[in-house]
Write a structure and sequence with these properties.
Blueprint lengths: L1 H15 L36 E3 L7 E3 L4 E11 L6 E8 L1 E6 L6 E7 L2 E3 L2 E7 H6 L5 E10 L9 E2 L5 E6 L2
Antiparallel strand pairs: 1-3, 2-3, 3-9, 4-8, 4-11, 5-6, 5-10, 6-9, 7-8
Length: 173
């Protein structure tokens, strides 16, 4: 009978008693404790369909348009990838561009760039997060046109310029 009583008491102790379990660095005072453990997960660009990629024209060689008496070229700026839905991609270029004669730096021709909407001294195009996601394979093209009126050209030869693209993620409106 004594063996049964000891066995019963041991079983009650194991079932009724609490086995304490503590996380690292948690101090327990009294019967309760609160602690926290860091948690994280990683998302790669591939999981979201790729990085955000903006492709600008490598070269923009203007061609003579005799009908409109100007030099002009239209090319595309392409964007694809994923961005935060609360953001939008904004690409801007200056409204005017000065082409300089390659043989004489004192000779130039004034040109204009057309790209989206006018924003002060710049032309600006935007891509929403949803448009970028929808076009994540092929991308979404926006036209960029450079024009130099024939009246700006005074000398025979080649004229060159550099266009600077400003690329930014901004808050969506």
């Amino acid at each position: 009978m004594r063996k049964k009583l000891v066995g019963l008491l041991m079983t009650m102790t194991l079932i009724g008693g609490a086995i304490p379990a503590y996380a690292q660095d948690i101090a327990v005072t009294g019967d309760n404790a609160t602690g926290s453990s860091p948690t994280s997960f990683s998302v790669t660009a591939d999981m979201l369909g790729g990085d955000l990629i903006v492709t600008v024209p490598d070269t923009l060689t203007l061609e003579y348009d005799q009908t409109n008496s100007r030099f002009a070229k239209t090319s595309q700026v392409n964007a694809k990838g994923n961005i935060n839905p609360a953001k939008k991609l904004e690409v801007s270029v200056p409204t005017s561009v000065t082409y300089v004669h390659t043989d004489d730096a004192d000779v130039d021709a004034a040109g204009t760039l057309s790209f989206g909407v006018s924003d002060g001294d710049n032309q600006k195009e935007t891509w929403s997060a949803s448009a970028l996601r929808a076009g994540k394979t092929a991308g979404v093209d926006k036209d960029l046109t450079s024009t130099v009126p024939m009246s700006e050209v005074e000398y025979i030869g080649t004229y060159e310029a550099t266009v600077t693209f400003q690329i930014a993620l901004v808050n969506a409106e």
